[in-house]
Amino acid sequence: MRSIAAVLVLSSIAVACAQSTTQSTATHRPTARVPRLPVPTAPKATEGVAAVGSMPAATGPATPLYTLRFIDLKLGTGELARTSAPGALVFYTVHYTGWLTNGTKFDSSVDRNEPFVFPVGAKRVITAWDTGFAGMRVGGKRRLIVPYQLAYGAVGHPPDIPAKADMIFDVELLGQGDTPQPVVPTTTTPQVQPAPSSPTPPTRPEEHQE
Fold first, then answer.
1. How far apart are CA 145 and CA 170, in angstroms?
2. pLDDT band per the 50, 70, 90 thresholds, residue 106
3. Is 148 annotated as catalytic?
4. Residue 92 domain boundaries
5. Which of 10, 21, 38, 46 lies 20 to 30 Å from 59 when distance is taken between CA atoms?
6. Is residue 107 annotated as a catalytic residue, yes or no?
7. Is 66 a catalytic residue?
8. From the candidates 70, 91, 92, 126, which is the catalytic residue?
């Protein structure tokens, strides 16, 4: 009996070591695009997944597959960016420059000096643009860090945008309006008043050159 017990103990130790090795390998396995998220030790129901009507509750952490990130480069001082409503589109006038993550610039309205106008929330642009201006004010500048799922998808947009291309956009909200006409800030050049001229003393006749 003692020999059988010893075998069982050794087997348990071997299984535990194998599980420990497997967990360590899985924890440090690099991920291609999606960062590993910490899992709570005690999962519980979170807001939005409680039982409602005939829908049962779902317990455990909600793990996103991908997310849009941004960095505010300059806070605007104009009105807060509005959103479209049914039958009432809001048009943004923006400047932008787009890069691939390897630093390749593929498009820029700034280089062309042609602001771009689009209706927000109308699915006329990539998903990241329909949501990426939320919380900005007119005059603000923001860097959008866009996963390919919120850009041009798995297919890309050849030849400029490869398949599954993550993207970076620097955007500036120039203005917004209710029509597709560009709304840009008008800059008035201050009028420079000429300096008052000092009175010229009368010249004597002999000072005139013939």
1. 9
2. very high
3. no
4. 69-177
5. 21
6. yes
7. no
8. 126
Q: Is residue 76 part of a domain?
A: yes
Which listed residue (96, 116, 118, 170) is catalytic? Answer: 96
Residue 105 belongs to a domain: yes
With DSSP H G I counted as helix, E B as strand and the rest as coil, what are the percentages for the chain, rounded to 5? 20, 25, 55
Distances (CA, A) of 169 to 38, 96, 100, 131: 28, 7, 9, 13
pTM for this predicted structure: 0.62
Active site residue 70: no
Name the catalytic one among 107, 116, 118, 166: 107
133 is catalytic: no
Give the separation between CA 177 and CA 82, rounded to whole angstroms: 9
96 is catalytic: yes
CATH, residue 108: 3.10.50.40
Residue 48 in tokens: 């939005």
